[in-house]
Write a structure and sequence with these properties.
The chain is built from 5 helices and 9 strands. The protein is of the alpha+beta class.
Length: about 220
């Protein structure tokens, strides 16, 4: 395991510590970020003492910030915000709704929520609603509802409506088939009627001929 560096923070760094704190960090983080940017240095008693006043101010600011965030979290629970976005006829957005969009909307409505506090796993790409978590630190958490609505009137076909339309189309198609079948039956019956009439005529002629033959006198 790599040896950790012990450094004195010259300024407050989120998720690491306040100015004047002595912290332990990984060597790479120290060499590549903290030390080159003069955000930390090797601790000495004299330097720690010189940062006591700055650290006290930082603590007061942190305490004030926490109180503000607690108030925001209390107000946010159960809040619904609405975003209007252009989309196609299927409800797919032309531009996805991101953490920044949600943060900006919350700020305009009076909630001081930084983009990093918006816990949105994936951008919202369709119209509809979704629960989104707002989190400050580890323990200040609230859940809001984000509704994305289209910028125009569109008719979205639900699965139930789609099935209903399919059933109607099939019924109309079935009626057409039955009409065709009826037409075929009617057409097939007409020739049959004509043949029946011809047969009857031939039968009548044969009967009349037989009657005439029976009336002739027998030869003497």
């Amino acid at each position: 395991m790599a040896r950790q560096y012990e450094l004195l923070l010259l300024e407050t760094i989120e998720n690491l510590g306040l100015v004047g704190d002595v912290v332990k960090v990984r060597p790479g983080y120290a060499r590549n970020y903290l030390l080159p940017n003069e955000m930390a240095e090797a601790p000495t008693p004299e330097k720690i003492e010189s940062l006591k006043e700055a650290r006290a101010k930082a603590e007061a600011e942190v305490s004030k910030q926490r109180a503000q965030r607690e108030a925001i979290i209390t107000r946010l629970n159960g809040v619904t915000i609405t975003l209007i976005r252009p989309c196609n006829d299927q409800g797919v957005l032309y531009g996805a709704v991101t953490q920044r969009d949600i943060s900006d909307k919350l700020v305009t409505e009076g909630y001081g929520v930084d983009m990093r506090a918006v816990r949105l796993t994936n951008p919202m790409r369709r119209i509809g609603s979704q629960h989104v978590t707002i989190q400050f630190g580890r323990d200040l958490i609230a859940e809001i509802t984000v509704e994305v609505k289209p910028d125009r009137i569109i008719e979205l076909e639900t699965p139930g409506h789609a099935k209903h339309h399919e059933a109607e189309a099939k019924n109309k198609g079935g009626e057409g088939d039955r009409d065709d079948e009826d037409g075929d039956d009617t057409g097939s019956k007409e020739p049959s009627t004509e043949r029946s009439t011809d047969d009857e005529s031939k039968s009548d002629r044969a009967t009349k001929s037989a009657r005439k033959s029976s009336k002739k006198p027998a030869a003497e």
